[in-house]
Amino acid sequence: MEIVCPAGTPAALRAAVKAGAHTIYCGFADESNARNFPGLNFDRNEMRDGVSFAHAHGAKVLVAINTFARAGEEAIWHRAIGDAQTCGADAVILADPGLLAFTAHHHPTLRRHLSVQAAAANADIINFYAQEFGIKRVVLPRVLSVPEIAAINAETTIETEVFVFGGLCVMAEGRCSLSSYATGQSPNMNGVCSPASHVKYSQDHGVLDARLGGYTIHRVGKNDPAPYPTLCKGCFGAGGKTGHLFEDPVSLNAERLIPQLQKAGVTALKIEGRQRSRSYVAQVVRNFRAAVDALDAGKPLPEGMLARLSEGQAMTTGAYKKTWR
Amino acid sequence: MDLTIGPNQFFWATDRWAALYRDLAQAPIDRVVLGELVCSKRLPFYQDHIPDAVATLLAAGKSVALTSLALITLKRERKQMAELAEMGVEIEVNDLTALPFLPQDAGFSVGPLVNVYNEGTLAWLAKRGAHRVCLPPELPLKSVETLASAGADLGVSIEVWGHGRLPLAISGRCYHARLHGRTKDNCQFACDQDPDGKDVKTLDDQPFMAMNGVQTLSDTYASVAHHVQALTQAGVSALRLSPQSTGFIELCHLYRQLLDGQIDGPQTAAAIHQIDGNARLSDGFLTGQRGADWSGLTASP
């Protein structure tokens, strides 16, 4: 199976390639990609050099252009698609039907992957996207169980890529406006969810409050670990109960499910985290590469390979286990 | 401008559900979209009543469409979609999965849960047969203006979210069931006690959201009371009102009066508060810094 690894910077790209990633995904430093954070991502020259470096080491580069183009400003996104091709990208990762139609028409030789932001969650829609826009791979939403993924693969010839490690989106991706409702910054339009610019911490009588867009969604003792206030993993009250009503502040770790995902027909395993450091990226890649290499050689998975990265942070297999629902 | 009634997002008892559509047949509205938007497990409770509701509305001169589910994943849901497409009534697509099921050459409409953010997507949908699109509620007025103009060129009517709790997110997981310590597969219909969703508050007890099964809604009721003139000028052809349990038919009359110029925005907002004194309003997606903002003088969130 292919290990698909994030790179938020050219340095992270090189580190990931050296650590054994088969494929790197990254984006341009603008609103055309869904990790539009300050100081992250690639300008055009960096992208061209990054692709050359990856190709020289036998790795591929996928360019994420996975926000939804703003009405009246589609040229920004169209230019990003053309530039990805010029830079030598092996594929673009798209979510917006308008951009998929544009790419299929104007850049027919540029390989097209369907982003998780398109929330294509069944074989009918995946086959439809393939027929309509010629997509070759779909990144599956993180709301599917392993048997559901196997069922999809049985009904489509399109490659499937699934998330195995990193952040966990619990709402259907590309269809969530919680962030723009509370902060005005939107994953779909701005490539931003629960942005740090809208986070405020305050301390009073030994209690630390975290607010996002003016809404208090975490409260801990000043010496306790304070998770980042992401809306869907916030603390809320309803029906007389208070707690993490949507999702606990956990990360996704599906390392133990790799053999099942392979059996389910998955082509590629995706690691999340373009905002992570290059050393983190390299370490995660090394571990996952070792796991798929072991699997290919018919050997057992290395034990507890990500224990250090997981330390102090709760992990879940998310929707891959049906009971999550 | 027309008034469209969106699909009821909540799980109501069958009698209450049927009564809504009998009442809407007599209300000053133009179009009704009905059926199950949120959860495929709810549909069997009232699906046998849908043909009667459709017939009543058509007889009263309303145009009618059936909604697809908002998130189609399970085999059962794909089967429901296929059955829906065979009913001979126009489909409102709220998940693009519905598209391959639609009869060839049948026109269709597109609901607010499909990501129509730009002219390219609008043109692609028009080419496939879309003749009406209700835009995602998240879009700012500037995008609405651009898309309404593009829609006019493409022969696609543009509708915007006019009133009601905003559909903010949908998931594979049922939060209503989770609140009751259950899973989605054993939910025991935890959502049926909350006809407008279950209020979700922040740690400061500030109203924020509402959970409705697998769906997450805003606490505020979005209202375009103050923007009808701008929307009319933009060429928007309809407002969508989303059913709620309190005073919904009165709301329909109210928005009809607003569109007819008999009352203005502040009067409309004041009258909404007469109907439901607890209702908090928002219009921030359209004109504010954030979705929860309200440009009116009263009842800010």
Mean pLDDT of chain B: 95
* Strand content bin of chain A: 15-25%
Major β-sheet strand ordering of chain B: 1-2-3-4-5-6-7-11
Radius of gyration of chain A: 20 Å
Multimerization status: heterodimer
Describe the protein's architecture and organization.
The complex is a heterodimer of chains A (about 325) and B (about 300). With about 325 residues, chain A is of the alpha/beta class. In chain A, about 35% of the residues lie in helices and about 20% in strands. The radius of gyration of chain A is 20 Å and the shape is globular. The model of chain A has no long low-confidence stretch (mean pLDDT about 90). Classes of the chains: A alpha/beta (about 325), B alpha/beta (about 300). At the A-B interface, helix 4, helix 5, helix 7, strand 10 and strand 11 of A face helix 4, helix 5, helix 6, strand 7 and helix 7 of B.
What is the topological layout?
The complex is a heterodimer of chains A (325) and B (301).
Chain A: E1 2-6, H1 10-19, E2 23-26, H2 44-56, E3 60-65, H3 74-86, E4 91-94, H4 97-106, E5 112-114, H5 123-133, E6 137-139, H6 146-155, E7 159-166, H7 178-183, H8 187-190, E8 199-204, E9 207-212, E10 215-221, E11 236-238, E12 241-243, E13 251-253, H9 258-263, E14 268-271, H10 278-296, H11 307-310, E15 315-316
Parallel strand pairs in A: 1-2, 1-14, 2-3, 3-4, 4-5, 5-6, 6-7, 7-14, 13-15
Antiparallel strand pairs in A: 7-13, 8-9, 9-10, 11-12
Helix pairs in contact in A: 1-2, 1-10
Chain B: E1 2-5, H1 14-25, E2 31-34, H2 43-46, H3 50-59, E3 63-67, H4 75-85, E4 90-93, E5 108-110, H5 119-128, E6 130-134, H6 141-154, E7 157-170, H7 175-179, E8 198-201, E9 207-212, E10 215-223, H8 228-234, E11 238-241, H9 248-259, H10 265-275, E12 281-282, H11 284-287
Parallel strand pairs in B: 1-2, 1-11, 2-3, 3-4, 4-5, 5-6, 6-7, 7-11, 10-12
Antiparallel strand pairs in B: 7-10, 8-9, 9-10
Helix pairs in contact in B: 1-3, 5-6, 9-10
